[in-house]
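User: Teach me something about this protein's shape.
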Amino acid sequence: MSTAETSAAAAASILPCSRIMRRQVCAFIAAAGAKGCTDEEISNGLAMNPSTTRPRRGEIWAYGLITDSLGERRATASGRSATVWHVSTAGLRALSLPETEWAADKVTA
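Assistant: First, the predicted structure itself:
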């Protein structure tokens, strides 16, 4: 099986669960509030494989539900610098959370 075939098979196998996992990732980030989360923190907090977490985080970022617009970075367990993700107002709406909750796009300089 080629790499492309393996990737396609993996994508097809995750499809039934991906919506639920996207919601879990978005809710985890929203629950962190102003602190936000790195990919590593999301994976550890949800006990989810990083190879599953990162694509779901990428999808919800593409939908505008989370953002890295604050430019924050935090060290991972290995000491490397990682992007900190925060929920957006659109993410709060998608999770049916009150827009009075903290959201990165409501932060003023």
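Now, about its shape. The radius of gyration is 15 Å. The longest strand covers residues 73-75. If you'd like, I can walk through any region in more detail.
User: That's plenty for now, thanks!
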